[in-house]
């Protein structure tokens, strides 16, 4: 069974340690996927999110811990996409962000 992500604010040692992307900000981020497509996080398919995570996890400070935190996430759920972005950022992973706006 896939798990739906939840963010426990108390898991962070202080408010300043918590990731800085709001729900909308995270879903509106433009990312370059491993196949070179550019999409907003909100528009990523399940396969897009899996490939993004596969590409980002090895760049985390502790890849094993990062991978474990993202195991069995249901990427159909926008909340889970937000959680994934926050976890990757918190883990120090490199996100392939694109500057600017996407038309459409």
Distance between the termini: 35 Å
Number of strands: 2
Residue-averaged pLDDT = 84
Inertia-based shape: globular
The spatial strand order of the largest sheet comes to: 1-2
Structural class: mainly alpha
Give the % helix: 25-40%
Provide structural commentary.
This protein has about 100 residues and is mainly alpha-helical. It has a domain of about 70 residues. The protein contains 4 helices and 2 strands. The protein has a two-stranded antiparallel sheet. The protein is globular, with a radius of gyration of 13 Å. The N and C termini lie far apart (about 35 Å). The N terminus is likely disordered.
Quick take:
This protein is mainly alpha-helical and 104 residues long.
List the helices and strands and how they pair.
Layout: H1 23-28, E1 30-32, E2 38-40, H2 46-56, H3 63-69, H4 78-90
Antiparallel strand pairs: 1-2
Features:
6% strand, globular, two-stranded antiparallel ribbon, 104 residues, mainly alpha
